């Protein structure tokens, strides 16, 4: 990467790797695993096993009486394989480019991917804990196993900031990341995961799907979400039959917000017989009281620019619960107070 165009192209390739679904290239991934071990000065693992998901890998590794329990697989070598090479390359680049040069490089590469990949990895970790840990002791053991994981394709954000071509100390790690999912390196064993078979995200990069799992692996391990909000697997199936009474009756405040967003605030207001609490030149302020939750407060605004057919489109802006006037609410969406808000032209 020597210029802005080259950096952008490399970032696009790593973005695609991070979001890749479908069967792993097992031959290429296994070659990458072996290269990562030898680059770290370690013997190649005696066995490389495949798991259909991070859950399957945890179940395999977490069984103390299983064939590949702690005694059989040896100690974790994640630090030698992943952490130390990464730190050495980072220090080398920092010294070569200087603080400002390194900052520019990171801004053009890894920073563009970091939020989405880290958010997705953390959601997978949380899903594993939620589905596999039955008590605090199991959760503690599971989290220790997760610390042994190399994130494969979800390490794309930091890998794209470095040289990962053949001969690089990171070439093996990069080869696995381009071709497979998470993996666990131990002295005598490496466990490598398949990539997801499905990944659905919204425009902000959050897990999002209304008619099925937002993230799914070949063995059925799946995560459901609506615009980034984790939801139970069966929850989304009932969204098409929502009523205001069903929404008000939902005890979980976060799920109730998902219901409201899916049902539509304007539709809920109409079906509930709600009345506006304030009107001014900026719009109409509506308030939806919800049991055991903060009020939902919306400003109804009409676009002053007509549509091609001559109609004027109505928008609904969600504003803080303590909003008292429509003008105050609209001003808040622009990051100013009501007294400062003075648009030259409203659109």
Structure description:
The structure is a single chain. The protein has 347 residues and is an alpha+beta fold. It has 2 domains: 4-195, no CATH class; 242-333, no CATH class. The protein is built from 13 helices and 12 strands. It has helices spanning 4-18, 26-39, 54-61, 70-73, 78-108, 110-132, 136-147, 156-159, 171-179, 244-249, 253-263, 265-272, 326-333, and strands at residues 47-51, 183-185, 189-193, 198-199, 215-216, 222-223, 225-226, 229-230, 278-280, 283-288, 296-302, 314-319. The strands form 4 sheets. A 4-stranded antiparallel β-sheet has the order 9-10-11-12, with helices on both faces. The chain has a 3-stranded mixed β-sheet with strand order 1-3-2. Strand 9 and strand 10 (283-288) form a beta hairpin. Helix 2 (26-39) runs antiparallel to helix 9 (171-179). It is elongated and about 75 Å long. The two termini are 43 Å apart.
Task: Please tag this protein with its features.
347 residues, alpha+beta, 4-stranded antiparallel sheet, 3-stranded mixed sheet
